[in-house]
Amino acid sequence: MVNTRAWRAEAIRRIEADYTRSADTHLVRVDLPRAPGITLYLKDESSHPTGSLKHRLARSLFLHALCNAWIGPQTCVIEASSGSTAVSEAYFARMLGLRFIAVVPASTAAPKLDAIRFHGGEIHAVDDPRAVYAQAQRLAAETGGHYLDQFTYAERATDWRGNNNIAESIFAQMAAEEHPIPEWVVCGAGTGGTSATIGRFIAYRRHATRLCVADPEHSVFHRHYADRAISQLPPGPAPCIEGIGRPRVEPSFLPTVIDRMIAVDDAASIGAMRALSERLGRRVGGSTGTNLIACAALIEEMRAAGRQGSIVTLLCDGGERYGCTYYDDAWLAARGLAWHDAARRIGDLLGS
Questions:
Q1: Cβ atoms < 10 Å from Cβ of 292
Q2: What pLDDT was estimated at residue 18?
Q3: 3-state SS class at 126
Q4: φ, ψ dihedrals at 212, nearest 5°
Q5: DSSP 69-110
Q6: What is the pLDDT, as a whole number, of residue 130?
Q7: Which letter does DSSP use for residue 318 in this model?
Q8: Are 21-52+160-350 and 55-154 in the same CATH fold?
């Protein structure tokens, strides 16, 4: 018979050992020749072992569940995800020898599904993205498993005061720059966990930095930020940018720690993504483009006001998973996504 306490201690040791073997992610400096005195930095989360920002979240969710004794040696682990979180969670589940099932929208990019399977995960696709929550809960009940529920636990699973969270890492890496305390940090919101961590850390360390969240137009978060009475969208168009934007306000989304939200058109996100990929010489994902559009608006405001300083945003994942979608011109044309103007505008800002 398995000693559950000993198994849990070994599981935590494995996750911590994996973290110790990993280097921190890079902070990439992007000088802006058309905005002298303003520098853009990209926190490159694509260099995690599973290729995205969600690697941090998956590690935290597993440790949170293990320390709460919600996961044992025979537990089937379930998650509702648009792809990247599930890729990372499959990685940790395989590390611990656990079965993992990802409940994903049927529209999820095929390379993400392949990555989940590569790490030993199973796919349960649903046609309606709004149904992922109920399906995940049902599978957890049927298997006697545990639903990790990133949308509820993201903001509390991460230690926002430190412990090498993404905010602490950003400010440590900025320490020797000309403007070490950023004017703005810009991120997106899928669960809301990253914005909650960054916003709380800024307040805790008493920084003057402000937090801006970039949100797809067809998402409820920016609407809820403007009017707390709005908590859910009626059926309609869904954002095409995977990983950010939701039809309902998730429990982990904390509008009170955010200073500003900017709604971003999908086509503009694609254009910015393409322009940045050209500037860096490698592909980035769509949510990075969303962040960059918000950065461009803030840079223009700073320039008009004669302000200098730094802006930090997240390079959330690489573009390899989107070759059949965001980097396929025919796919974009079929969806009426006119991205070229935004690509030219952002390319001009980046000097590419």
A1: 31
A2: 93
A3: strand
A4: -115, 135
A5: T---TTPPEEEE-SSHHHHHHHHHHHHHT--EEEEEETTS-H
A6: 85
A7: B
A8: yes
**Per-residue pLDDT at 1:** 65
Q: How far apart are CA 172 and CA 176, in angstroms?
A: 9
Non-local (6+) Cβ contacts of 163 within 8 A are: none
- Cβ(193)–Cβ(150) under 8 Å? yes
Work out the number of other CB atoms within 10 angstroms of the CB of residue 114: 12
Q: What separation in angstroms does the CA of 237 have from each of 128, 193, 222?
A: 12, 24, 16
User: What values do phi and psi take at 74, rounded to 5?
Assistant: -115, 10
45 closest CA partner among 316, 281, 243? 316
Burial of 246 (0-12, 13-18, 19+ CB in 10 A): buried
Can you tell me whether residue 299 is helix, strand or coil?
helix
Question: What count of Cα atoms within 13 Å lies in the side-chain half-sphere of residue 169?
Answer: 22
- Cα(163)–Cα(52) distance, integer angstroms: 19
pLDDT in tens, 28-40: 999 999 999 999 9
Are 108 and 82 in contact by the 8 Å Cβ rule? The answer is yes
Is pTM, for the whole model, over 0.85?
yes
Which CATH number among 3.40.30.10, 3.40.50.150, 3.40.50.1100, 2.10.70.10 corresponds to the domain 55-154? 3.40.50.1100
pLDDT tens for each residue of 227-258 = 999 999 998 877 899 999 999 999 999 999 99
87 HSE (CA, 13 A, CB side): 25
User: What does the alpha-carbon distance between residue 45 and residue 131 come to, in Å, rounded to a whole number?
Assistant: 29
DSSP-derived secondary structure for 199-219 = HHHHHHTT---EEEEEEETT-
- What are the boundaries of each domain within the chain? 21-52+160-350, 55-154
Whether the Cβ atoms of residue 54 and residue 46 lie closer than 8 Å to each other = no
Domain boundaries 21-52+160-350, CATH class = alpha beta
CB 191 within 8 A of CB 151: yes
Please identify every stretch of the chain with a pLDDT value under 50, giving residue numbers as ranges.
none
**How far is 73 from 86, CA to CA, in rounded Å?**
20
Query: CA–CA separation, 244 vs 130, rounded Å?
Result: 14
